[in-house]
Amino acid sequence: MKSNPMTTENSNGQTLGLIHIYCGDGKGKSTAATGLAIRAAGAGYRVLIARFLKNDASSELNILKTIPGIRVIETPKDFGFIWNMSENEKEEAAAYYTRMLTDAMQTASNDNYDMLILDEINVAADLNLVSEELLIRFAKKKPDQLELVLTGRNPGPALLELADYVSEIHCVKHPYEKGICSRIGIEE
Question: Which of 118, 138, 151 minimizes the C-alpha distance to 47?
Answer without folding.
Answer: 118
